[in-house]
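User: I'm writing a short methods note and want a consistent example. For Cytochrome b5 heme-binding domain-containing protein, I'll paste the sequence; you return only the structure tokens, no commentary, since I'll be parsing the reply automatically.
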Amino acid sequence: MSEKSGQTKSLEAKLPWYYNVYNTIKDTPINLTLLLVSAFVFYKVVNISRQRRNLNRVRNFFGYGTDNEKSQLPPLRRDFTVKELLKYNGTREDGRILVAVNYNIYDVSCAKQVYGQTGAYPQWAGCDISRNLINFTAERNENQEFDYMCDLTAQQRSTLVEWDQQYSEKYPLVGRLVSDDDDDEDERPVDGENEEDRKSQIEQQLGTI
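Assistant:
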């Protein structure tokens, strides 16, 4: 018996590790239950961790959870071309930072930890970041021509409108991004009387998608 027992142990030693695991589970059904429960708990922990990372990523992107520097700059109300917008990248004497989202221009000067020269996305300052938000890319938009975004899909447009809504809730609306073919700079509105109308347009766009 001892010889046969020794041969059996020698044979088991040569078998793959997962074969022994299988035999253990088969011989003791409770092990299978514990294994399934452990796998489920592990999945839930990983899923929750991933969701928290994504949430923190978005919150950090918008500056939530940090003390945003309250902007002391006077309100700005006017439209900009792409080339004019480039000047508002935080390097001006007043330090004002503007970005364009879905043709709406927002003053993000209060979020220097995000868009400032030492922030997370300094390359976005003074740019139309619509495509960056759609594709969640960090590259600087080097295009100095007006982007009509005619190639966007319905899903991409919906995503852009959602981003626009989030920016409108977080930052002051300055004006619109216009092409060089639009009205001259002197004819553009400089007051804030159309700000509520622009926010209403965003809400209407959200309602039609």
